[in-house]
Amino acid sequence: MLDSPLSRFRTGHIQCALQERVVAARSTASQHEWFVFFLDSGQAVAETQDGEFEMSGPALRWGPLDEHTRLRIAAGGAGYYLFFGTPIFEDAIGLAAEGADLRMFASQHLVATFERSDSLGQRLDRLFERITAEAQTPQFGSEVALSAYIRLLLVLFWRSVDRDVIPQDTRRHGLGEINRFRNLVEAHFRARWSAHQYADAMGITYDRLHDLCVRMVGKPPALLTRERSMHEARVLLQRTALSAERIAAMLGFSSPSQFNHFFKSMAGETPGAFRKQALVEAGKAEPRTADFADWP
């Protein structure tokens, strides 16, 4: 059982011989927020704070990570595990029109089972092989590639919703409204709309919007909009050479100092410190000449 050396992404392949193997997230739950278990063959039990779920391979389990999350694979079983953080999750969701619906789908505990002859199960097996290989030998662009792989995994999983996917969260009432809120956030977060403005645009009261967000997502609307702005700020700081002043203006902040205060309150460090650390981490991966032959 090998772990990925990437700090924001932990993955590995498990092959059990004569005894049970356990993959636990307790030691890394503070670094990651999401998990995926793919059981290629054999029997396993996936555990979270919500309880246990028996898996018979091929099967896949996806959901928010907590300190009780672990996978117990019985002797003779084989599979893969992924633990990753919100930045990779957000990159995987992307900014496409379907992003709001995909986010809602991916924000709950989900389980899928497949027949051995099912082509989807076989495609997932190959996909996990590539994810594990990419994560265990990181190089220039590895996190971008991993985000793309996770997006493909999510889309394949999402497409199987009419087959055998079981949502573990049954709070479906209000799904249309929360999706509309997500779409409005994508359209207006750069204008720094307040939660009250979103409620007005939806034709509902602020109290209704607050209750909806807390019940469906577990977070108040103001925090969700702040997190969306924070994600955009991180991406711009990591992947562009734009100044903090320019990024502040693009994200609707009235001044660089306001942006600086916002970023520090969310991340615990200044935009400059974040960018410096991002450059250090990027420098650890060796660049290579582009070779598209091994691209999926």
Automatic annotation (TrEMBL):
Keywords: DNA-binding
Domain HTH araC/xylS-type: 179-277
Cited PROSITE patterns: HTH_ARAC_FAMILY_2
InterPro entries for the chain: HTH_AraC (IPR018060)
Name the UniProt record assigns to this protein: AraC family transcriptional regulator
Organism: Maritimibacter dapengensis
Phylogenetic lineage: Bacteria, Pseudomonadati, Pseudomonadota, Alphaproteobacteria, Rhodobacterales
